[in-house]
Amino acid sequence: MTRFRRSSLLAIALLAFASVAAHALDLPRGVSAGPSVEGISEYRLDNGLRVLLFPDASKPTVTVNITYMVGSRHENYGETGMAHLLEHLLFKGTPTHADIPGEMKKRGIGFNATTWLDRTNYFASFTADDATLRWLLELEADRMVNSFVARKDLDSEMTVVRNEMESGENNPLRVLMSRIASTAFLWHNYGNSTIGARADVENMPIERLQAFYRSHYRPDNATLLVAGRIDPARALNEIVATFGKLAKPEQPLAVTYTRDPVQDGEREINVRRIGETAYLGVAYHGPAGAHPDFPAVSVLSSILGDTPTGRLHKALVESKRATFVAGIHFALAEPGYLLLLAELPKDSSLESLQKDLLDLVEVRADAPFTEQEVEDTKRRLLKNVELTMNDANRLAMSLSESIAQGDWRMFFLQRDRIEAVTADDVNRVAGHYLKPSNRTLGRFIPTAEPDRSEIGEAPSVASLVEGYVGREAIAAGEAFEATPENIDQRTLRSELGNGSKLILLPKRTRGGTVVFSANLRFGQEQDVLGKSQAASFAASMLTRGSQRYSREQISRRLDELKAQLGIGGNAQGLWISGNTTRENLPALIELLEELLKNPSFPEAEFEQLRTQTITGIESSRSEPQSVAGNAMARHGNRWPQGHPLYAGGFDEQLAEVRAVTLDEARAFHRDFHGGGFGEIAVVGDFDADELKTDLEARFGNWTTAKPFVRIADPHADTPVAHQFLETPDKANAMIFASLGLAMDDSHADYPALVAGNYVFGGGAMKSRLADRVRQKDGLSYSVASRFSADALDEDASLLLFAISAPENTARVEAAFREELALLLDKGVSAEELKDAVEGLLKARERSRGEDAAVVGALRADAYLGRTMADAARLDARLAALSVDEVNAALRRHIDPSKLSVFAAGDFAKVAADAAKSDSGQ
User: pLDDT, tens digit, for every residue of 764-787?
Assistant: First the structure.
């Protein structure tokens, strides 16, 4: 046994002891111990706050997630959207925390919040640090009861939320889903969109919003979870010091009691809007998450809606009657619904697809669900549960949904219940819930013998979880400090026999997880002219069938291996990424060898892929972001059609996709795919010697016939452009503003421009642009800027972007130009630079704690001839920046007169409405 393995085993033993001992803490006064399940321990403060501690030292990060049991379900008449508005306003500050996004940003904290039907949660992730944890706990305790929730903030944020609402109205599928829910529920608030009615959001009385805040934001209505590299005793003491001083309100929490009556006939809703793609959705009322039928309905939903193994995919997508299907089953606190969706190829019949879909879903007398289908689906669902449990941060977030159902232990209990589901259970719930009278497509039909679906009340969650102990906690990994120095010291670099670079970082991980990333490179410019579509299709077809496996068998095999796998490519590369566990890694590599070397290129799958690609392009024609983005890419394009770097318009893309043949895809795989010029990186729990031997045996002699020569793509000046493009009937517009620079990331000014951009537009809620466009003017829900520079070519760009209502897009552009001019005139302040550098460094440190980020960085560094020492040098250059350096670099390289603008939206309607207003109509 090597020294590394002995130290790893010691770390695992210590972590296992910590997990067992965590619940046996010396409890502070006012704290009582609750249940402990699979490494997570619950405590209860006297004021009613539930506290969950989940120590996991395998990653150098901490996640804090606080879940409030308040969502759109709790809103009253005239108050829709109130829970979501509060989510926004809780970032507006308290008397002692005036600039929450700014304070988060300078500490390098990744943060956000979400609102859903039953709950609202606020989460933050950061590199483990006692001072940051203490500050964040103080903040969460403070804003629980002391947030301003002020009229001025509501006035500015209302327009931001309205813009978020408008962006959702651009998405036809989201609109259809919202209309289906509002038709399925007559009285229950599950029928209301969480973002609320426009009239309610625009006219919200501040007094009602403040009352809603006081009613629901209280310690006895919240669950605080702290997960990651923590000392449980210290964390609990900090929680008591910050949250323990909050009083439990005397007024008891209100209980919701509205239930929809049993549906008594089919319902239907039609949405007619401008667009290119048709969709079909059908919903059936179903049980709450705690109901005994819920696990079987979850399995049923996946059997029907999974891609590629689901019944709907096999019957509708493989026959080209649909291009996409999905099944969604919502785990809610009260009776909810199951939703099935389908996307249609252009010019297909909705009526025909509707009949086919309903026949598949509601008529099963001669085609009951089989034990094989149930077992395959359970394996897939349980794989996802295990992947979640292997990541403390991901599990921390997932527990919000279980908390919303009534108790965090429902996450584990649902896993156990899914394991127990049988084919008889699935067939029983299918017969009970999937019937016409319970369907929302809906028309009323009088009938002498009503056949209705009675949905019984779920038992109390408390009765379900009482005495529940779960299973043995998942084995934790080692406490690896993910510094550049430690990563480089642990990383093993070598080559396979064919010349492919191999980068291995073995370390013990939670659940024995392994992540990998590979890029196989091939071809030179003259080899790949006119072959971009063939290359793309060849890559996508690799997971759609091989000599040994069909697409469905590949999907089933990945579930068996608890693995995820993605393969994509272009004319000069094949990208492979995925993850699995230590014991399944050899089998996954064996499967990958089969897929890469022996694809079968099934004709039916090729045509299905072509139809899906065409549908995606057709849909993009009317989407503002796609239209503006395509215009920007085409403006900067200097390559001839057929060149792999050429940016084509939508018509050109469609023509190329329609013209590409299966034989061309097969030929591209035969002529180009292979190793020798790429990189393979693996991070996680594996034996390095065994893995290298395995990869050498399977791929060491697999070499591309077309040697790789990189196509250089340096910066080239382009004329300044200003394009406002029409996308009719879209409530939201998109604007991009860009300028290019001749610079690579080794330039002396690169760190200064990175920091300057972070001040200017880095961060969704806190930056110069966010302060102006979102916080002050209330014009956009999402506004930011991005600065990037290539590593090999002198090609850099500054990109500003925002969404807005079409009538506000010109104001957003004006704000872009004014703030950019102000940045160059007044410069970055010393305080702004200090906060920016601290935030950047902490964000980079946090990223190095995520294996998925590390594996990508190691692979990219191998291609560039770099190591993590280069990342450390960039950290040092950022830390050493002065205000004068940053401002000089900004003024030296950023020329606002070269800014090109591309926007797309329904500007014609804005002009028409203005003309009507001017004429007095």
Answer: 688 999 999 999 999 999 999 999
Quote the crossing angle between the two packed helices 662-672 and 532-541, to the nearest 10°.
Answer: 80
Whether residue 903 is contained in a domain is answered as: yes
* DSSP code, position 275: -
Whether residue 250 is contained in a domain is answered as no
**pLDDT band (50, 70, 90) for residue 905:** very high
Asked if residue 401 and residue 546 are part of one domain, the reply reads no
Instruction: Show the domain range for 764.
Output: 722-912
Same domain, 695 and 726: no
What was the pLDDT predicted at 879?
Answer: 97
713 lies in some domain: no
Q: In angstroms, what CA-CA distances link 126 with 460, 487, 839?
A: 36, 19, 10
Cα 61 versus chain centre, distance: 19
Residues 307 and 400 in one domain: yes
Number of independent structural domains in the chain: 4
pLDDT category of residue 721 using cuts at 50, 70 and 90: very high
* Percent of the chain clearing pLDDT 70 (strictly above): 95
Answer with the one of 243, 264, 292 that is the final residue of a domain: 243
Asked if residue 679 and residue 556 are part of one domain, the reply reads yes
Distance CA(76)–CA(658), nearest Å, equals 52
Give the highest mean pLDDT range of 762-766, 896-900, 911-915. Answer: 896-900
Residues in contact with 37: Cβ distance below 8 Å, sequence separation at least 6, in sequence order:
409, 412, 468, 469, 470
DSSP β-ladder status, 50-55 and 222-228: parallel
The 8-class DSSP code of residue 251 comes to: S
Shared domain check, 357 and 229 = no
8 Å CB contact between 787 and 767: no
750 and 661, same domain (yes or no): no
Last-in-domain residue among 640, 668, 699: 699
Find the mean pLDDT for residues 194-221: 93
* Strand spans (E) along 257-302: 279-285
Residues 207, 310 share a domain: no
* pLDDT tier at 126, thresholds 50, 70, 90: very high
Strands 900-905 and 573-581: unpaired
CA–CA gap between residue 227 and residue 59 (Å, rounded): 10
Looking at residue 457, its pLDDT comes to 76
User: How many residues does this entry show for the chain?
Assistant: 921
Distance CA 47, CA 319 (A): 59
pTM, two decimals, is: 0.84
Question: In this structure, is residue 253 part of a structural domain?
Answer: no
How far apart, in whole angstroms, are the C-alpha atoms of residue 408 and residue 391? 16
Taking CA atoms, 125 is separated from 65, 87, 840, 841, 842, in Å, by 9, 18, 14, 14, 11
d(CA 181, CA 183): 5
Give the chain's mean pLDDT.
Answer: 91
**Which CATH number is 680's domain given?**
3.30.830.10
Instruction: Give the pLDDT confidence score for residue 833 in this predicted structure.
Output: 96
* Same domain? 687 vs 726: no
Alpha-carbon torsion angle 822, 827, 829, 833, nearest 10:
110
Q: Tell me if 127 sits within 8 A of 108, measured CB to CB.
A: yes
Q: Are strands 564-570 and 573-581 parallel, antiparallel or unpaired?
A: antiparallel
Backbone angles phi, psi at 646, to 5 degrees: -70, 140
pLDDT in tens, 830-858: 999 999 999 999 999 999 999 999 999 99
Residues 6+ apart with CB under 8 A from 693: none
| 359 CB burial (10 A radius; 0-12, 13-18, 19+) | exposed
Report the SS3 class of residue 793: coil
Q: Which residues share a beta bridge with 738? A: 799, 900
Tens digit of pLDDT for each residue in 624-670? 999 999 999 999 889 999 999 999 999 999 999 999 999 999 999 99
Distance CA 921, CA 916 (A): 5
447 confidence band (pLDDT: 50, 70, 90) = very low
506 preceded by a cis bond (ω within 30 of 0) = no
What mean pLDDT do residues 14-28 have? Answer: 54
